[in-house]
Amino acid sequence: MQFETIGLQGKYRELIGDPSVGFTAMVYGLPKSGKSTLCIDFARHLAEYHGRVLYVAIEEGFGYTLKEKFQRLNAIHPKLVIAEKLPDDLTPYQFVFIDSVSKAGLSTEELTILRKEHPKTSFIYIFHTTKEGNFRGKQGFAHDVDVIIGVENAVARANGRFGSGTLSIF
Known about the structure:
This protein is an alpha/beta fold.
């Protein structure tokens, strides 16, 4: 069987490998651990080299801190669109970041429907964690994704179907 990969290169290939088109990932960590910083930088990388990206900032919304992160990370890019809510039409995007699934209140069933409706779109879901460091939500989320990235103290650790690695965020 043949699978089309996105051709991921650089530090993100070292972190997660070269995922197939339409891959899914979950990113989780405690508040202020670097989850959004990692994902905004990853979104910039994908927009620069791989296609149109939608970053849905449900958690933070449009505001000074979100603007500051995008500017600090040099993540302003014509192929990177920022929204406060998930739009009805996702067809223009090859990659969709949902920050955060916890805040959006999306169920595993709803995420499964999104994936089925958009099989060539990659989804990166961002989750909160409990004080113990476990992600909030049903365990089914972890079983339904291709890559799991835990973020702690500005270090991302990934495990998944395409490889595993570690990346310092700041």
